[in-house]
Amino acid sequence: MSENYATVNPCSMCMPMGSVMAFKGIEGCMPIFHGSQGCSTYMRLHLAHHYREPVDIASSALSEKGAVYGGAANLKKGLLNVIQGYGPKVVGIATTCLAETIGDDVAQIVREFQQEEPSAREVAIISASTPSYSGSHEEGYNEALKAIVRTLAKRGRPNSRFNLVIGSIVSPAEVRQIKSMLNEWGCGYDYTLLPDISETFDAPLAADYPKIPEGGTPLAEIAEMANSRETLTVGGSVLVGGAGDYLEREFGVHHTRLPLPIGVELTDRFVGTLEEITGLGLPEKYERDRGRLLDAIIDCHKLVAGVRTAVFGDTDMVLGVAKLLCEMGMDPRVLATGSKNAEFIRWGEKMAPGSEVLSGVDFSDIHESVSRNDIDLLIGPFTGRQISKAENIPLLRVGLPNHDRFGASRQMVLGYEGATRLVDGIANFIVEMNERGG
Ligand code: SF4
Description:
Layout: H1 15-23, E1 29-34, H2 37-51, E2 58-59, H3 64-69, H4 72-86, E3 90-95, H5 97-101, H6 106-116, E4 124-128, H7 137-152, E5 162-166, H8 172-185, E6 191-194, H9 219-224, E7 230-234, H10 243-251, E8 254-258, H11 264-278, H12 284-304, E9 308-312, H13 315-327, E10 331-337, H14 342-351, E11 356-359, H15 363-372, E12 377-380, H16 385-391, E13 395-397, H17 415-435
Parallel strand pairs: 1-2, 1-3, 3-4, 5-6, 5-7, 7-8, 9-10, 9-12, 10-11, 12-13
Helix pairs in contact: 1-7, 4-6, 7-10, 12-17, 13-14
The chain binds iron/sulfur cluster.
């Protein structure tokens, strides 16, 4: 791989953008970026194109003056405008590169603001440090989840609930799927799921457009996360130091991290852990779903066997999809992510032995690796389309971002049912490739 001294078409997005996915998953929350206005404009558009929903993100709109003299005045004014204009229960502040570079002390600015504006004291203010030069959108998401529990979780009497933290960015439909699985399992209301984007990023059509979308994890439940008996983070195989680790360190809540449940083995691990936590067996419906997944894999195994595939995108999504490809008898030769993460390399070599595992790379690096490995099929976000076009290799769009196809909010790859859909999707994609002479 040639050495790049600049990023050419990043395979990741900005750190504050990840924070929005976490903040928008809690009740009544409005995000604000402390930094220049362009950051908020770019990320609003990026998310609105993916989810096909309006995505409001405020900005403290730092200009040259703020960059020289500090951005406290802008941030305070921005917070007041957001509180007066949107009436949120929570404001989530994420810093951008500029605010971090000038060294603004956001915690101190927030304390001053709350003293100066008694009318705003009812509103919880969370701040996450998310300069894009120190991580990708995945780290931003992780950082914001930690900031949420750090600000809102309060020590109290122990309760019998468990926390289910979604440690990787998944679709709103997948969050709905996990909730309905837990409810059918008999967990009822004995768990807190954080963050819950099931409605906030995929709302039904309505006559009135609420300023802040309904849904999200209730704030009262987040407060109780400090007193739960257990935290399970799904999609937390490679990113450490998130909400679950914080709750364990500060409040002694035992924490287990699992990969995203994609495919047979990883879903079995998820299900087995839930059985241990709840003391309840898997409902028969899901046993049958598991059998259907195995059936779907067998149905198409001759067609898909040995297809040389490159998978790229978010860390846990790539690892889970690669594992499923191995279960299908395919040949995942390249696993790549834009996030810099040594654990990704270790897990990638375990999930798909013999593959080339790349971390912290851009699409220029991925292109080289795709050419070198004689790839037949690309799986990942739509941002890989230039490689697809240049090399004439079909791209199956999976994950974030997806701007040029519909239904990203309803894409499902998790659990036995999601994997079955993905198996069918891959098989049909290969049928079409073959029909076109690919
Ligand atoms: S790289 Fe930094 S300054 Fe640029 S859009 Fe992302 S957060 Fe904003």
